[in-house]
Design goal:
Layout lengths: L8 E4 L7 H9 L3 E4 L7 H14 L3 E3 L7 H11 L6 E9 L4 H5 L14 H17 L2 E9 L11 E8 L4 E7 L9 E6 L2 E6 L2 E7 L4 H11 L17 H16 L7 H20 L3 E2 L3
Parallel strand pairs: 1-2, 2-3, 4-7
Antiparallel strand pairs: 4-8, 5-6, 5-11, 6-7, 8-9, 9-10
Length: 291
């Protein structure tokens, strides 16, 4: 396959801890790579992909479809426009249900070697990515983890963490695959001058101290949203729209020579945060991030 000159980009959808090897082979053949989240399961393995792509002059994109929904874009635009004032609290909640059959469906699931972790690395990392995108770099984390329900896996099915952001804001993160029936993932961004709440991939709250003409339109659009299950209890319920837009973005980057919207460096950020959270849960100490 890699010898076929008409192939420009390879999508890597192997288990999380086996992204590096096919990525390096594809990069070595001069192919661009679009890699499912997480980019890899350690920062070192992420760096190996990023460095190889840089040397080969090819592009790497990392799948985080939640960034491509309209509500997510509206939120980041308003943050960058300083509408929230000083950011105060950023919270992410991923309280999902995954059955024993889900973990038994593949020997890689729920293992440190191939899954890289449990509920946080596999399901929660989307919300970790959004949280750091909105709130900015994470300075340190403190966490506790447990395996409450899924006793046949090596990793956590429940984890709670607090985060200190470099801008002085604080954050919380709760993630599990042990609850029934599960609820939509939720992101809360709160500042001195405004609050926004994402549930699934839609806004459910949008309020600012200084209103503008667009705000009422956004609130009216919130009323028209039909809630979906959003993967809370079944991965098949997750919409394909974000993936479609990210594939389109990768093609745009290749055609124009620009970087993908979520390149390797962006994809590495959430892995670094997750690994720090796991280290804190293991050691019982607050862990500072390197970058």
């Amino acid at each position: 396959m890699l010898a076929v000159p008409e192939i420009d980009v390879v999508c890597i959808c192997t288990p999380s801890g086996i992204h590096l090897e096919p990525a390096l082979k594809s990069i070595g053949a001069g192919k661009h790579c679009l890699i499912e989240k997480p980019l890899e399961i350690t920062v070192e393995r992420c760096n190996a992909i990023i460095d190889a792509a840089r040397r080969a002059g090819v592009k790497v994109g990392v799948i985080f479809p939640s960034r491509f929904y309209e509500a997510s874009r509206q939120l980041i635009t308003s943050i960058n426009g300083n509408r929230f004032g000083d950011l105060v609290l950023g919270s992410a909640y991923v309280k999902w249900h995954r059955s024993e059959a889900y973990y038994a469906s593949g020997r890689w699931r729920g293992t440190w070697e191939y899954d890289g972790g449990g509920a946080l690395m596999n399901q929660g990392i989307h919300s970790v990515d959004l949280l750091q995108w909105y709130m900015g770099p994470v300075e340190s984390v403190q966490a506790v983890a447990a395996n409450v329900r899924h006793k046949n896996i090596e990793v956590e099915d429940t984890i709670v963490a607090t985060l200190n952001f470099k801008n002085g804001a604080l954050g919380t993160l709760e993630c599990t695959t042990a609850v029934f029936p599960g609820t939509l993932k939720r992101i809360e961004i709160m500042g001195t001058e405004g609050t926004a709440i994402l549930e699934g991939d839609h806004l459910i709250k949008w309020q600012f101290q200084q209103e503008n003409a667009v705000d009422e339109q956004i609130r009216n659009s919130i009323k028209e949203v039909t809630p979906s299950a959003g993967g809370a209890s079944n991965p098949a319920d997750i919409s394909f729209v974000g993936h479609q837009r990210q594939l389109e973005d990768m093609i745009r980057a290749i055609e124009t020579g620009d970087e993908p919207f979520i390149n390797g460096e962006e994809g590495r950020k959430s892995v670094e945060i997750v690994r720090a959270i796991y280290e804190s849960a293991r050691s019982g100490n607050r862990v500072k991030l390197i970058s």
